[in-house]
Amino acid sequence: MFQVTTVTIINRIDDCNCGGRLDGIVYEVGIATGSWEECGRFLGPGDGVVNITTTCDRTMHGRYVRIRKIKQDYLTLCEVYVYS
To answer: Nearest-CA neighbor of 65 among 14, 21, 9?
Structure first.
């Protein structure tokens, strides 16, 4: 099990204009893939944003990190960094 304090995601930096795909993101940490606790949120706007760093509301412990959209829509992630 690992301590998780911060999550950084990096979006595409080409001409796709995909920043809006980062709107409405929830970061979750879990001990198992069926038990998730919310770490933080990024509600947007994501237009023109290349990277987003979110610090967890509290220190979390887990083995997995899940990044999901609040609404069903496209999500583009090029890199994800998890820090403790």
So the answer is: 9
C-alpha to C-alpha distance for 26 and 13, rounded to whole angstroms: 22
Residue 21 CB neighbour total at 10 angstroms: 20
> Residue 43 belongs to a domain with what CATH number?
2.60.120.260
**What is d(CA 72, CA 84) in angstroms, rounded to the nearest whole number?**
29
Q: What is the DSSP letter of 22?
A: G
pLDDT in tens, 20-66: 788 899 999 999 988 999 999 999 877 777 789 999 989 899 999 99
Q: Are 64 and 33 in contact (CB under 8 A)?
A: yes
Strand 64-69 relative to strand 25-32, pairing: antiparallel
- Domain of 30, in residue numbers: 2-83
Q: Could you give the number of structural domains in the chain?
A: 1
- What's the token pair of residue 55? 């610090």
DSSP annotation of 34: T
